[in-house]
Amino acid sequence: MGQNSPMAPDGSEYVDEIKALVCKTFDVDPDTIDENTPFSEMGVDSRRRVRLLATVEVEFGIDIDLDELDRLIDIRGAATVLAEAVQAGAKPRKRGLPGLLRRNRLS
């Protein structure tokens, strides 16, 4: 019927790793959340989502555009953003601060 086109990644392969990072970064009990629990229910505001994005960049050694921050609403969203960045050939990070911290001089 149609040509085979590459499917957009859904992030499934990264859900467990992102969940572990979220739990470690925000001191959340993994038994109390799942991949669809909104970060807002965990007390994670936009500033803390920036921190998570930076943590993902460091952990996976890539730069992710800060414009993706609005998609980090839960673990599944964060995993999907990561999967898409990896599939798109996200640039490996240079030594030093994560990309979004270098760009925005956040601490």
Any descriptors?
107 residues; mainly alpha; 43% helix; 0% strand; disordered C terminus; ACP-like_sf; PP-bd_ACP; Acyl carrier protein
Mean pLDDT equals 82
Number of helices: 4
Main sheet attributes: strand count, strand direction, barrel closure: none
CATH architecture: Orthogonal Bundle
Distance from N terminus to C terminus (CA atoms, Å) equals 52 Å
Per DSSP E runs of 2 or more residues, the count of β-strands stands at 0
Order of helices and strands: HHHH
Query: Which of globular, elongated, flat, extended, rod-shaped describes the shape?
Result: globular
State the CATH topology.
Non-ribosomal Peptide Synthetase Peptidyl Carrier Protein, Chain A
Helical coverage, percent range = 40-55%
Q: Uncertain regions: pLDDT < 50 for 5+ in a row?
A: 1-5, 95-107
Q: Which structural class is indicated by helix and strand composition?
A: mainly alpha
CATH class: Mainly Alpha
Strand content is under 5%
Radius of gyration equals 14 Å
Oligomer: single chain
CATH superfamily: ACP-like
Number of spatially distinct domains: 1
Domain Carrier: 12-86
Organism: Amycolatopsis coloradensis
Pfam family, one: PP-binding
InterPro entries: ACP-like_sf, PP-bd_ACP
Q: How would you describe this structure to a colleague?
A:
The protein is 43% helix and 0% strand. The protein has 4 helices and no strands. Helix 1 packs across helix 2 (46-60) and helix 1 (15-26) crosses helix 3 (75-87). The longest helix has 15 residues, at 46-60.
